[in-house]
Amino acid sequence: MNPIDLRSDTVTEPTPGMRDAMSRAELGDDVYGEDPTVNRLEASLAERLGFAAGLFVPSGTMSNLLALMAHCERGDEYIVGQQAHTYKYEGGGAAVLGSIQPQPLEGEADGSLDLRKVEAAIKADDFHFARTRLLALENTMQGKVLPLEYLAAARELTRRRGLALHLDGARLFNAAVRSGLEPSVIAGHFDSVSVCLSKGLGAPVGSVLCGDPELIDKARRLRKMVGGGMRQAGVLAAAGLYALDRQVERLAEDHANAERLGEGLRGLGYEVEPVQTNMVYVEVGPRIAALKAHLREQGILITAAPRLRLVTHLDVGADAIPRVIEAFATFH
Ligand SMILES: Cc1ncc(COP(=O)(O)O)c(C=O)c1O
Predict the structure, then answer these.
(1) How far is Cα 205 from Cα 224, in angstroms, rounded to an integer?
(2) Distance 119 CA to ligand 1 centre (A)
(3) Which pTM does this prediction carry?
(4) What pLDDT digit, counting tens, does each position of 222-279 carry?
(5) Is 232 close to ligand 1, i.e. is its CB under 6 Å away?
């Protein structure tokens, strides 16, 4: 039996239909701008999110890095959450490769950054300081959906203070499906949005950065610089197009499975954070290593952390949920 892998939604494998679409993709050299499948993916996703241009890149990390470097110059600063992917989990790329200083702020329980704290962190125009240039948000943030009114307030603040606003929308489609909104309604508040095709959407590789043509031109140059210019990348873009056509609505199944998993674990006495999308956060404390070993024996994979994150996705069917709850129930 295949393991139930709850470590991340990045572990999914392409379905037979997706593999078929990949093998039939029309190809060209994308560094010359000649891969029709990449061009179609960039144009169609940008349009779907309400932007004039898009850029296909190998990873979400690269997409965020290019966005930060395209918005900010050397010696500029971006405000970001302490737990945000762009700050904590991307190897410090903005600082290392872009000479962009992060100004991290502690996030709130709902996944937002308190906009009063954001405003207070914007530095005065003074040569002692880095120039605050950008606010970076994440949606979903640890599985939580940022409310639209919050996004509108962030937009208002950044416009008023002359900052750009970037969204790490690795899981933008989870946020859209959960809220019953078109993704463009969320994306429309931002100057740039990075979307991952290789998380809940189920493609093997790739992200798309969307923005205005000027920003995307800058990002294209930066993509080449960091080695992200790919050639017959249409084989990968075809997977992304397939995912965007057929694997968006089904995210609701992942959310329902996560909800049921959360309820089941709560029923066993675990402290479980409210579940909104495909992530279940459970307090397990110091016995995490023993729990991990126990679950492994039952064919269930988790990442060991005292605040345990369980992620549902395309390769975790509804039938897996009772098995996981049962495995937790037999952990003593
Ligand atoms: C919120 C978020 N942003 C960005 C990324 C980076 O994506 P990648 O692994 O493709 O670099 C991830 C990866 O897990 C993520 O969870």
Answers:
(1) 18
(2) 27
(3) 0.97
(4) 999 999 999 999 999 999 999 999 999 999 999 999 999 999 999 999 999 999 999 9
(5) no
Query: Taking phi first (over 0 means left), then psi (-120 to 50 degrees means alpha), and beta for anything else, what does residue 17 get?
Result: alpha
203 lines ligand 1 (CB under 6 A): no
Radius of gyration of the chain from Cα atoms? 20
Ligand 1 centroid to residue 170 C-alpha, Å: 6
* H or E stretch at 329: helix 320-329
Q: Tell which one of 196, 201, 236, 309 to mutate to probe ligand 1, the residue whose CB is within 8 A of the most ligand atoms.
A: 196
pLDDT at 2 (0 to 100): 85
**Ligand 1 atom closest to Cα of residue 206:** 10
Residues 204 and 217: their CA atoms lie apart, in Å, by 25
Structure confidence at residue 28 (pLDDT): 98
Q: Which of 61, 173, 174, 208 to mutate to test the pocket of ligand 1 (most atoms within 8 A of CB)?
A: 61
More reliable by pLDDT, 2 or 213: 213
Q: Is the CB of 144 under 6 A from ligand 1?
A: no
Instruction: Give the number of C-alpha atoms closer than 13 A to the C-alpha of residue 28, restricted to the C-beta side.
Output: 11
Does residue 168 have its Cβ closer than 6 Å to ligand 1? yes
pLDDT for residue 1 is more than 80: no
pLDDT tens digits, 15-52: 999 999 999 999 999 999 999 999 999 999 999 999 99
The closest of 207, 206, 209 to 217, measured between CA atoms, is 209
